[in-house]
Structures are given as structure tokens and as C-alpha cells.
Specification:
The chain is of the alpha/beta class and 559 residues long. The chain is 50% helix and 11% strand.
Length: 559
């Protein structure tokens, strides 16, 4: 408990960020949030210390990575975005399929993921789970998608320039934590090398968000050039055997390498000289890890061995000798190998620390790349699947004399089911319309036979609204929407027997949560209410739910 105490957690954050107060981060009056953040920082420090010990145990020399790459903190509240609870995320199959083990099931994330970078994928997931409710922000995203959609050549040029950029954020974290190996550094350098091309192509797309991303995109040319100067093009994965640092970086390293690499020619010269001196043509100078360098003479030629040879080992058919010259050279070579590895470790560590010192600039570029990737992906999808730009009403709900707060969709489609290449179905998806508003038509009762498409119609509406508030174009001929603050779903039958909840209890708990928290700006999807009860009991519950929504929350509802 003491980790979450304000007199421990808050000073920990203040010391980490080098500030006297957390007010500048928007945490004034949010003591519980600051304590939680301090506890997270404590946890990260503890686990990183254990990871450092593990690396040392396995022979990896590391100074012990700091958490300097954690360089920002921000405060948010759930109501600052479209709220999706765990039940809704599951029922709409946003990230995971509804039924565990459905390996072939297609989620919305999979259907929309045409990003080219790991950073873009993460941002897609983040925007999907926390869509915006800020019409200005949504408008900026949609303007960018529109500009990219209208410029095919420029869009594809930018997408090609993004292809091949690796996960800069993850690489940077490994560098800051001092767990990055030489290939990680090369991967970062190769990714940074693509930034100038991205930056050159970006101004061709005329949109305010693209202009903002262009200004945020730092090419980090100094970091890239330092990596290229320091590390060989194809380094080994570890520093244990050297061969990581380029020639010309360190004079002492170059000298030691010369000693090590020219050993064979030096030994060949000694061998030739001793053959001429002794007259033994079969004399050989050899090396092994146990005895080091030695001269080997066969038993038949032992009488020709000079007096200054020191006997080292006796074999069945030969004798091995050494000389002061060989001893001196052996010490120099073995010492050179150790020094080479030590110098390379030092230079690599200095390089890693130098990159970590620029982590703020690199991370800023990574965040800009992620958003650029995602916006271009949305434009690519819109072109590929004939999506339309959604229009948003800026009025608030509850104006009885007009259609403020409407959800009007013309020829809407389900973004997942309409894709035969994803679902494996050859059936043509039939588009359909929808109209809801906050005054005259806020509830639709949807009836029809089993497998008639009722559940698909419900989910399709929610996914179109969610996609629009992410900043994506939507699968429809036209979509006029109002901002939704929360999407609720009550779908299907499930139990939680481990917690003592029957199917009926789970259903009523979910329904109660909807009735108690929905507002006039919410969207409710109710796919069957009152299951597991007698006919009239179920009907009574469903009837009461509809009346309550109609008279109290006025939320737009598909039932």
C-alpha cells in the first residue's frame, strides 16, 4: 500500500520528471491519478532492476538501463472520448473474436488494418478503443483522409516511403534500457534513413493535419549519421567476439585489429625464417587454445633443434617448442583480442547512451509516423472499398423541433461482413438505410426471422459510428451523424458461474448498467432482453426497458 501513498508516489514522479510540481502536467487536483502513475513508475523501476541483474547473470554487461525514455505524462478522463466498456468491445468484436478459439474470425481491427508500421497498428488499436468526441479533432483527421484520398500518386509515394520502417518506439525503449544489441541499432538507423523521403513527400498532401505532422517529423540526421559511422552494415548479434564497430572510429582499436588480423602473415614469416635457420623443411608454427603458439618438429629432426628452443610438449611423433619471440607475440595477440572486445563494448555503450539522449526527438518522429501511417491507411481503405466521408451535426441533442442528434445512414454496409476475402463468404452484402434522431425517432424495434440479419444491422450501425469518430471514412453512400458519447451493447446469452451469475443475472446486470448510465447522446444496441424467463415475464422486462429509455435517457436505441 505504501507504494500508492501520495508522500511516496508523487515525489517519485516529481524527481523523475525534474519538476517541483505536477500541476504543469494537468495533474492538479487529481491526487489519485498521480499516485497511480507513481506506482506504475515504481513497478517499472523494480522490474528493470531485476532485468538488469538477469542480463549480468547471463554474461551481458549492462550499466543498468534508466527510465529516461519515459519523458512525458498526461491526464485524461474517460468521458473525453467515446466510452466503450469491456462488454461492448467484446460484443462488437473490435479486437478479439467473440468466441474464443475462433482462429478464422475477423475482427474490426483486422478488417481495417492496412497500416505499414507497427506504430501505426498500435495507434489504430488506440483510436479504435478510444474514438474521439471532439468534432474539431475528427474534422482534422477526416480532412487529412480526404486530401490523401484525392491524391493517389502522392498517397502511394508516401506509403512506399513508410514501408520498411521498423518499430522505432520499441527499438528506442530497448536502447534507453540498455538491452539493445548491435542489430537493433542498425535497425533504428535504417528506419531513420527513410525519414527524409517521408518528409519530402508529405507537403504534397494539402491538409492541416499533414502540415502539423510535417513540422513534428524530425529527420534525426545526426543520430542516423552517427550510427552509420559507428556500426558495420551487418554486425553480429552480440559484442562477445567483436566485429561491431567500423574501422576509423578509434585509433587504438584499429591498431589492435591490425595485430590480430595480420597474425597469419607474421607467423608465416617466422615459420619460413626458422625453416631456413634450422634446415628443417617440415617445421611448423601452430596455435591452439590450450598451449598457445608453438613450433612443432618431428622426432626424426629433433637433433636439428636449436639450443634456444624451449621444450613445451612431447607427442608420440613430434616435439613442441617455444621461443621468447613467440611468447611475446602470443601475449600481444591474446591481449589484443581482449582489448578489442573491451574497446568495442565501451564505444557501443557510448553510442547507445548518445542515442538515448536524443530519445525525445526520435519518439516525437515515431508518433508523427504512426499517425501519418494510420491516416494514409484510412485513405487507402476508402479508395479500395468505396467508403464515404461522414458528416457531423454540431448541434446538441434534445432540440425537439429539428433533427439534431441524428444518425442518418444511406446504403450502409457492415465493414467486416461485406469483405468476402476476409470472411470467406461469396454472398453479396445488401446495403441498408437507417434514421434515428433525438426528437421524433429515437428507438427502432427490429423484428424478423432467425438469421435474417437483425444482429448484423445493429452491429453495423455501431461500427459505422465508431469508425467515423475514429476519423475514418465509413462503408455507406452517405452518413450524417451526431457525436455519440458512449456505445452500449446487450447481446446474446452468457453466464459467469464462477462468480455465481446465471445467464439471466448477467443479462440483467448489463441492462441495469445501460439504463443507469446512458445519456441522450448515447447509442444503445439491445439484441434480445428477457431470455431464460417465461414468455410474459420476458416481454414485461423488454417493454419496461423500452419505456424507461424512451422516457428518461432518450438515448438512440436499436432493439
Amino acid at each position: 500500500d505504501w507504494i500508492f501513498a501520495s508522500d511516496y508516489a508523487i515525489p517519485l514522479l516529481e524527481n523523475h520528471f525534474g519538476v517541483l510540481s505536477l500541476e504543469g502536467f494537468g495533474l492538479a487536483g487529481h491526487n489519485a491519478a498521480a499516485c497511480a502513475a507513481g506506482a506504475i513508475l515504481h513497478y517499472a523501476r523494480e522490474t528493470q532492476a531485476r532485468q538488469t541483474q538477469a542480463h549480468q547473470t547471463h554474461g551481458h554487461q549492462t550499466r543498468g538501463g534508466s527510465l529516461d525514455h519515459v519523458d512525458r505524462i498526461s491526464y485524461y478522463e474517460r468521458q473525453n472520448c467515446l466510452i466503450l466498456d469491456a462488454v461492448t468491445v467484446r460484443n462488437l468484436e473490435l479486437i478479439e473474436p467473440l468466441f474464443a478459439g475462433s482462429g478464422d474470425a475477423v475482427t474490426l481491427f483486422r478488417a481495417l488494418d492496412h497500416t505499414l508500421t507497427a506504430m501505426g497498428k498500435r495507434l489504430l488499436r488506440a483510436w479504435m478503443l478510444r474514438p474521439s468526441i471532439d468534432t474539431a479533432e475528427i474534422g482534422l483527421r477526416l480532412d487529412a483522409v480526404w486530401a490523401a484520398l484525392a491524391s493517389l500518386m502522392q498517397r502511394e509515394e508516401l506509403r512506399r516511403s513508410l514501408d520498411g520502417i521498423l518499430d522505432i518506439e520499441r527499438l528506442l525503449s530497448r536502447i534507453a534500457l540498455e538491452t539493445a544489441n548491435p542489430r537493433d541499432i542498425i535497425a533504428l538507423g535504417a528506419s531513420l534513413a527513410r525519414l527524409p523521403g517521408v518528409r519530402r513527400a508529405l507537403p504534397q498532401l494539402q491538409a492541416a493535419r499533414f502540415a502539423a505532422l510535417h513540422s513534428l517529423l524530425d529527420e534525426c540526421a545526426d543520430v542516423r549519421e552517427r550510427i552509420e559511422r559507428s556500426i558495420v552494415a551487418e554486425p553480429p548479434i552480440t559484442l562477445n567476439d567483436g566485429g561491431v564497430i567500423r574501422g576509423g572510429v578509434d585509433a587504438q582499436l584499429d591498431e589492435l585489429r591490425d595485430i590480430s588480423r595480420n597474425g597469419k602473415s607474421y607467423i608465416a614469416r617466422i615459420e619460413q625464417r626458422e625453416r631456413e635457420r634450422t634446415g628443417i623443411n617440415s617445421l611448423k608454427v601452430k596455435f591452439n587454445n590450450v598451449f598457445g603458439f608453438y613450433i612443432e618438429i618431428s622426432k626424426a629432426n629433433l637433433q636439428h633443434a636449436p639450443a634456444d628452443y624451449e621444450r613445451k610438449q612431447t607427442l608420440v611423433g613430434a616435439e613442441r617448442f617455444t621461443t621468447p619471440e613467440l611468447k611475446e607475440y602470443e601475449a600481444k595477440v591474446l591481449d589484443a583480442e581482449e582489448k578489442i572486445v573491451a574497446i568495442e563494448r565501451r564505444l557501443f555503450s557510448e553510442l547507445r547512451l548518445g542515442i538515448a539522449a536524443e530519445s525525445r526527438r526520435i519518439r516525437q518522429s515515431a508518433l508523427a509516423l504512426a499517425e501519418l501511417d494510420l491516416l494514409l491507411s484510412f485513405a487507402h481503405l476508402a479508395a479500395l472499398r468505396n467508403y464515404c466521408r461522414p458528416e457531423f451535426d454540431n448541434q446538441l441533442d434534445g432540440q425537439p423541433d429539428d433533427s439534431a442528434g441524428r444518425i442518418e445512414i444511406l446504403e450502409g454496409r457492415h465493414p467486416v461482413i461485406e469483405q468476402p476475402e476476409l470472411t470467406g463468404s461469396n454472398d453479396r452484402f445488401v446495403p441498408n438505410d437507417l434514421y434515428l434522431d433525438g426528437a421524433r425517432q429515437s428507438i427502432l424495434l427490429i423484428t424478423g426471422p432467425n438469421m435474417g440479419g437483425k444482429s448484423t444491422y445493429l452491429r453495423q450501425t455501431a461500427l459505422i459510428v465508431l469508425m467515423a469518430q475514429m476519423g475514418s471514412f465509413v462503408p455507406a453512400t452517405r452518413a450524417r451523424l451526431s457525436i455519440v458519447d458512449r456505445i452500449f451493447t446487450r447481446i446474446g446469452a452468457s453466464d459467469n458461474l464462477a462468480r455465481g451469475r446465471s445467464t439471466f443475472m448477467v443479462e440483467m446486470t448489463e441492462t441495469a448498467a445501460i439504463l443507469n448510465t446512458a445519456t441522450a447522446r448515447s447509442l444503445i444496441l439491445l439484441d434480445e432482453i428477457g431470455r431464460g424467463t417465461a414468455t410474459y415475464d420476458g416481454l414485461a422486462i423488454a417493454w419496461a426497458v423500452v419505456e424507461f429509455i424512451h422516457q428518461h435517457s432518450h438515448a438512440k436505441t436499436l432493439f
